[in-house]
């Protein structure tokens, strides 16, 4: 596969990989002298499930110091010299303005890792202002040993930095965790079991080499490159495992180095909303129920290549102002289920009426519904709409078998 950056950027030169290496951790760094040493210490101090030091040969860290004007690279090299057992590769690059961005840095490292690892090897990402948990590598490897093709880690922020945004941030996390619980109740996935979270972002993402290659790799975007990689994987029917044992803590610092929408910008906007007494609106309980029931019905329709007599899909067509025949054409033309569901979901999310309530109301309703359904065996069986014995995953995992 031709890399779009290859005409302008030569590949990274790295020492040979250790034969026992299973996972390459990629870390982009731009002027991170204040953060990089704690990040590297956390990556070095990894332990197994029993708390014993993890074999340092089973993983490596590739750090790309790009366009730095501080001592980031020197500090990282000194750390590598002080800890020769820690397989840390430090590379410096200066990108031209037209390609200089975090997406370019991530892609260069992930492409280099993909070249070094076998097809079942694991490419992981974190950030240079992020502290991975001591079990992060072991928990990631365990998830892949259980059959994962992509893993998203649980990401938290410390309470000791900016605080203006925190109320809405905590509401957002609570809401999305409850959404994940509701989705599991309606559309349970055996390889992404409960308890699960919702995150699959740059501070903690991992993907098998064969799945990374099949989806086209990390897009070299100026912002939300991690989200775009997740979308690309979804479109080839590679789903993330959201394992709460894979954990990191990332900085909530303000940042002006990313063009476009980034995590720090979302925190800034939430802080402004609190100061101005504005409240975000999100899909409420009924729209969440519709979304996940539509997802189940769409999956069945995709594999049968027809709508059949599904009331849920006639309801979906009506909501999207489509005729049933038009929706059936979209189902029949979809290359994968993931591509079909992603397009439908994004169309729904762009519909103003689909986000219809505040965090407070949505959280209260979701919590009450999921709690009562979990406590009631009858309600629990009524929520889901997957027929007994019907396979809901794995029928079309293109390029990742």
From TrEMBL:
It comes from the Bacteria. Keywords: Cell membrane, Glycosyltransferase, Membrane, Transferase. One of its GO terms (cellular component) is plasma membrane. It holds the Pfam family Glyco_tranf_2_3. It is found in: Cell membrane. InterPro entries: Nucleotide-diphossugar_trans. Its main location: membrane. One of its GO terms (molecular function) is glycosyltransferase activity. This is Glycosyltransferase involved in cell wall biosynthesis. The lineage of its organism: Bacteria, Pseudomonadati, Bacteroidota, Saprospiria, Saprospirales.
